[in-house]
Specification:
It is a single chain. This protein is α+β, with helices and mostly antiparallel strands and 190 residues long. It has one domain: tt1808, chain A. The chain is built from four helices and ten strands. A six-stranded mixed β-sheet has the order 3-4-5-6-7-8. Strands 1-2 form a two-stranded antiparallel ribbon. Strands 9-10 form a two-stranded antiparallel ribbon. Strand 6 and strand 7 form a beta hairpin.
Length: 190
Amino acid sequence: MAPAATTVRRYRWTRADYDRVIQVGGFEPQDRIELLDGELWEMTTEGSRHAVACTKIMYVLQRAFTEGSFVSVGHPLALDDVSEPEPDIAVVRGTPDDHVDQHPSAALLVVEVSFSSLAFDRGRKLAAYARNGIGEYWVVDLAAERIEVYREPVGARYASMTVMEHEDTISPLHAPGATVAVSDLLPKSA
């Protein structure tokens, strides 16, 4: 007689599980991970071009978003019960002190700087941000030196996507008076 078949199940993480493990020191600082759709994902290591782009974007967005919000760099965004990504840049309503007891759960703008993570940022991350109502999402494609601007979330996708080239300018939805040059967001080539 054959043994009874067993079902092997994958363990799905909740944000509460994930946060509890972090609080008790279950992950080391060098464990660069984030929670997305109930799964733990290893974040790619930052190269110098990535770091320069993040720094430039932070400075430009700090000037564009003047009052009532702040620019968060590489910190968690508590999207839903199964996702807590750490976007490269997020513009968050309020002040940092408003989020002492819990991570922000929404953002006016989320930016991911991509080189080796481009497919992931256009796929799973885009779907998570859209599903959770992030109204504007930028993917900075370092290889192509351009920015993909996603707007109008509908379910797990965005109804609008515009590719902005090096010579173009962008006006963020929540800072319509600001004009941001794409060239000011990208690292200068050597």
